[in-house]
Automatic annotation (TrEMBL):
SUPFAM superfamilies: Insect pheromone/odorant-binding proteins. InterPro entries: PBP/GOBP (IPR006170), PBP_GOBP_sf (IPR036728). This is Odorant binding protein. Keywords: Membrane, Transmembrane, Transmembrane helix. The lineage of its organism: Eukaryota, Metazoa, Ecdysozoa, Arthropoda, Hexapoda. The gene is OBP9. CDD domains: PBP_GOBP.
Length: 85
């Protein structure tokens, strides 16, 4: 039950990050290109800090979360950059 709850919370936090980015895009009139570039910038910053491979974080886009410390730390880094935590 604990891992299921952790996965649920991680998914909810990523949804929150996405919502914040969308709201920011709307309020600041960001284009989709700017929104994608912001996501790429966050990834370029957080991925090396957490030593996580593309193969482990690419599935996040489809809602698949790999239960590893590096992936969880990467998600936490993204959330911090988006000011959601």
């Amino acid at each position: 039950v604990g891992k299921t709850l952790q996965i649920f919370y991680a998914k909810m936090m990523l949804i929150s990050v996405f919502e914040v980015l969308v709201l920011f895009a709307v309020s600041e009139a960001m284009t989709m290109k700017q929104l994608r570039n912001t996501g790429k910038m966050m990834r370029k910053s957080c991925q090396p800090k957490n030593n996580v491979e593309d193969e482990k974080i690419d599935p996040i886009n489809e809602g698949v979360f790999i239960e590893e410390k590096e992936v969880k730390c990467y998600i936490a880094c993204i959330m911090k950059m988006a000011n959601t935590v």
